[in-house]
Amino acid sequence: MTRHHRRWQQGVLAGATVCTVFCSALGAGQDLANLDLEDLLKTDITITSVSNKEESLGRAAAAVTVLTAEEIRHAGVRNIPDALRLVPGLYVAQIDGGGWAVSARGIADRYNNKMLVLRDGRSVYSPLFAGVYWDLQDTVLEDIERIEVIKGPGGTIWGANAVNGVINIVTKKAGDTPGILITAGGGSFEKAHGGLRWGTRAGPGALRVFGQGEAFAPTVDNDGERRDDARRAYRGGFRYDQGSGDDRLMVQGEGFNQPAHTFYRFPAAVAGGYTIEPDHFNSRGGHALIEAHKSLAERNRLGARLYYDRAERTQSFLGSAFDTVDVQAQHDVETDRNALLWGAGFRWWRERNTTSVVANLGDPAHTHRTYNAFLQDELKIVPERFSITAGSKFEWNDFTGTEIQPRVNTVVSLNDRHALWGAVSRAVRTPSQVETTGNFRYLVANPSPLIYGVIHGNTDLRSETLMAYEGGYRGRPTARTSLDVSAYYNHYERLINIDRTVAVTPPPMEKPLPFRNGKPGYVFGGEISGRWNPTRIWTLSSAYSYYQEHLSTDDRFEASYPKHMVRAQSYWEMTPTLGMTDTAFYYSTIHINHADRKFHVDPYWRFDVALNWRPSARWEFLLAGRNLLDPRHPEYGQIIYDEAGQIPRSIYAQVSLKI
Q1: What are the backbone angles phi and psi of residue 19, rounded to the nearest 5°?
Q2: What whole-number distance in Å separates Cα of residue 513 and Cα of residue 526?
Q3: Angle subtended at Cα 607 by Cα 604 and Cα 608, rounded to the nearest 5 degrees
Q4: Which residue of 206, 429, 626, 649 shows the fewest CB atoms closer than 10 Å?
Q5: Cβ distance 365 to 353 under 8 Å?
């Protein structure tokens, strides 16, 4: 099929779907789950990620989006990265059977080190490379209450690595999930899924216990052949909640085990300069967390969080095990004119590794500590109308020493339906263990003799810095519409990259490629998203984001970012028990630059459909289709050892039973 015919087919399919939804919705008359208009337009939602305390979404001085539990259910997604595709302005690309690139406002990568990801306030980034293993970020999706996404820096509250954004996955309280939930499903890509959750009263509180397992099929290569990157995932855990409001206690724990397959390009003195080696690796670990809040007086609260995290990942060329202990405490007191928030924390982590001739981290073990304190004050110049907030995070780490991350923002509520906000922030990203002590060997070129690149760590690296200037509008232009607009300008200093100027050494021919701090650069862009309820049973939403970068291409060691992204979605409640969601995505060209390797991914459309049927309060059935416009397509390119796969068209079905 020619590209012209394929695009024509895609356009006809997308247009026919929209027309079907439009015509059918005009003829129906049921209410959309009995929600009021404020709920449908998402203008009266409480969030915590911007200031680490509860506040209204409408008065948040940041480009923040909230993905609700109902939106996740309606879209029929089966993992957190696919749910994040629904967030306006967030770039999500699947790389292979277990890898994703997730980023906001530029500089995307499989191991993106500029997005801080939290689960119930617990950081889930790997200290190895300061990024996130997205294949390990899983839970019972029905237990997610909301996902809060900040596009822009959040270092004043959350510390280093919250440079381009913050993702906070908030799960439901145990008391909100009583009874038994059984889920089972499968499809062409996610081969099988099964889950069991049990919730009950436990003394003065409530307890939830869960377990689930999943099996995923491999992706395919450029010729449509199956790749050896299938994986399985098993997870279990509990959550206990006691109390409510400002006096509450939460305890949770989880354990996981994930055997997986993949393969890598390893340098070798053979024809072609490398061999394709299969890798059967395993990831396992768990965490325990306790969080407590206490009301000292009216609008005077104290909170504390303590967690221990254990994570192991064994691969043929590098194995690592991490133990992390983190403790944070904060106090906030509010008056009619001020809201003061301050706190402090400490993190300790230890890493142990096994190496190979291809990769090593220097010493077999490393231990690091981070101390922090923060202070933030909101001055309510005109209560509920005009406020200015200023604050800063102060951190000390044993990579770069003292780091300061201040922020000033303001919110002006023009009336009850329209608000303007603006912010100026400084954020930092500290070097990772890989960037300071790592050594990685791979093929650079294949003449005779072979030349291999050796990426070297650099203990003299300084933190990357960002000065961000952003502003936006959030409001309801009419009773049935909502609109969110934001713009930003980000100026970076000392971005960490690869120095390619070092000469090749004598035989064995090796080209040293040390990490270094690079040249300054800047990016700018904006996002606009809107929601419209033409009827009570039909919700339309759309989003567009624009991105432009001026960063040295010689310095880059990361993927580019789509210049244009579009998302359009329709949710139609055909009957009180049957709903359909159609979502279309567009991504412009992606450029990937890793060491000397350069790739690009052509622009593509993605079209997903989900059908949800709830014949009773106990039963729910889901039928979903993914990537329906193409038999397969790549969303990302290869990096160093990895070979990126092509993501196939897939279908999935699931049944849920509540007892």
Answers
A1: -65, -40
A2: 35
A3: 145
A4: 649
A5: yes
d(CA 567, CA 65) in angstroms, rounded, equals: 14
The arithmetic mean of pLDDT across residues 546-555, rounded, is 78
Residue that the structure tokens 């990942």 belong to: 313
Q: What is the 3 state secondary structure string of 349-408?
A: EEEEEECCCCEECCCCEEEEEEEEEEEEEEEEEECCCEEEEEEEEEEEECCCEEEEEEEE
User: Residue 256 contacts by C-beta under 8 Å, 6 or more apart in sequence?
Assistant: 136, 138, 233, 234, 235, 236, 283, 284, 285, 286
Share of the chain above pLDDT 90, in %: 55
Q: Tens digits of per-residue pLDDT, 211-250? A: 999 998 887 776 677 777 788 899 999 999 999 888 999 9
Q: Strand, helix or coil at 448?
A: coil
- N-terminal to C-terminal alpha carbon distance within the chain: 49
Half-sphere exposure of 355 (CA within 13 A, CB side): 17
Vertex 97, ends 92 and 98: CA angle to 5°? Answer: 65
pLDDT digits (tens, 9 = 90+) for 168-191: 999 999 999 999 999 999 999 888
* Rounded CA separation 172/198 (Å): 13
The mean-pLDDT minimum among 310-314, 324-328, 438-442, 467-471 falls in: 438-442
Residue 242, phi-psi category: left (phi > 0), alpha (psi -120 to 50), beta (remainder): beta
Interstrand relation of 338-354 and 319-334 (parallel, antiparallel or unpaired): antiparallel
Prior bond of 615 cis (ω within 30°): no
Token pair listed for 385: 């109308």
Q: How many angstroms separate the CA atoms of 109 and 101, rounded?
A: 5
* DSSP H helical ranges for 27-159: 37-41, 69-75, 80-84, 155-158
- The pair phi, psi for residue 73, each rounded to 5°, is -65, -45
Tokens matching residue 388: 């200015």
pLDDT computed for residue 408 by the predictor: 95
DSSP output for 170-239: EEPPGGGS-EEEEEEEEESSEEEEEEEEEEEEETTEEEEEEEEEEEE---B-TTSPBPS--EEEEEEEEE
Nearest to 470 by CA among 427, 426, 424, 428: 424
pTM to 2 decimal places? 0.89
Residue 488, number of CB atoms within 10 A of its CB: 25
> What average pLDDT does range 89-99 have in this prediction?
87
Q: Which domains does the chain show, CATH number per domain? A: 3-658 (2.40.170.20)
Q: What is the pLDDT of residues 478-526, one digit of tens each?
A: 989 999 999 999 999 999 888 877 777 666 677 788 889 988 999 999 9
